[in-house]
Design a protein that fits this description.
It holds the Pfam family GGDEF. By secondary structure, the protein is an alpha+beta fold. The protein is 46% helix and 22% strand. The protein is built from eleven helices and twelve strands.
């Protein structure tokens, strides 16, 4: 009776191992396959007879043999399980992802467990490898991270222009100021606004004014470097923090931008709109109390450009 029950239990366990929705592989101490369940057969395309007694590392050359050996030997020596998670190692064996819902992932993300298997004499002669498909978890995490990144980007950019908004731009300026105070690297600020912008709105309408602002932003994007921080300061006024740039080179940047705007033609509802900008440049070559001094100096230079007739660049001395 007991022998019959043990045989039934063995049959049930074998059926469970074959049909469970995780990969189950039993390896001997030479890493040769002894058990290869249906999950592994379906994902790898290898039938049990083809995998039997084959070295597991030869079947999957993408596995780092030194890393895998350290893992297995640790399990065999200590007699305790070992784990890997997809956040640290996306997969152990590279299986294609066939899940219809998470089909956008190019491979199956996996968690794995290595279990010591003791023989009747108490010695660990085999290791059981269990592979879990966690692609749905990884996909959800990636989608959440992408959504959070998008929200973060939206929270720091101006919706009309795509430039940084006032809050993020000013925080970036604080950081640039702190780096200058610590390392002494050159930092300059260019402030600019659109000349006679109210006249543009009054003549062509506010939608035309928005189009002009968008085109200014596009030119700023084109002229600024990746290390520069360009933002919309407010209304028709913009600011660009130029890293590792003194006021002389800041003037070069500003003058190049001024000429680009002067040669720009904005078309709106069949009408041609031309306009200019005035700019002010300042740097941190003189003593300052905080980052707000740089804003005040650049703004003072911008006012000087306006006062001198607009469509020009002035440098704060």
């Amino acid at each position: 009776m007991n022998d019959s029950l043990d045989l039934n239990e063995f049959h049930w366990l074998l059926a469970i191992v074959q049909n469970i929705d995780v990969g189950v592989v039993v390896l001997d101490r030479n890493y040769c396959v002894q058990v290869w369940n249906t999950f592994m057969e379906n994902r790898s395309g290898l039938q049990p007879k083809d995998a039997q007694n084959q070295n597991f590392l030869n079947l999957f050359p993408e596995i780092d043999p030194q890393w895998f050996s350290r893992k297995v030997e640790s399990v065999a020596t200590l007699g305790t399980p070992a784990f890997t998670i997809w956040e640290q190692r996306p997969y152990l064996v590279r299986f294609k992802n066939y899940q219809p819902i998470t089909g956008q992932e190019e491979f199956m993300y996996q968690n794995t467990t290595l279990l010591p298997l003791r023989s009747t004499d108490g010695k660990i002669k085999h290791i059981c490898l269990v592979i879990y498909d966690v692609t749905d978890v990884a996909t959800n995490r990636h989608q959440l991270q992408a959504a959070n990144a998008q929200l973060q980007q939206l929270s720091r950019t101006d919706r009309l222009t795509g430039l940084y908004n006032r809050g993020h731009w000013e925080e970036s300026l604080k950081g640039a100021y702190a780096r200058h105070q610590r390392y002494g690297n050159a930092t300059s600020l260019v402030m600019l606004d659109i000349d006679n912008f109210k006249r543009i709105n009054d003549t062509y309408g506010h939608l035309a004014g928005d189009k002009v602002i968008e085109e200014i932003a596009r030119l700023i994007h084109e002229h600024a470097r990746e290390t520069d921080v360009a933002g919309r300061y407010g209304g028709e006024e913009f600011a660009v923090v130029l890293s590792d740039t003194d006021k002389t080179n800041g003037w070069v940047f500003a003058e190049r931008l001024r000429k680009a705007v002067e040669g720009l033609e904005v078309l709106h509802n069949g009408q041609s709109i031309r306009f200019t900008i005035s700019l002010g440049v300042a740097d941190l070559s003189q003593p300052s109390i905080n980052y707000a001094d740089l804003i005040a100096w650049a703004d003072h230079a911008l006012f000087a450009s306006k006062k001198a007739g607009r469509n020009r660049v002035s440098v704060y001395e």
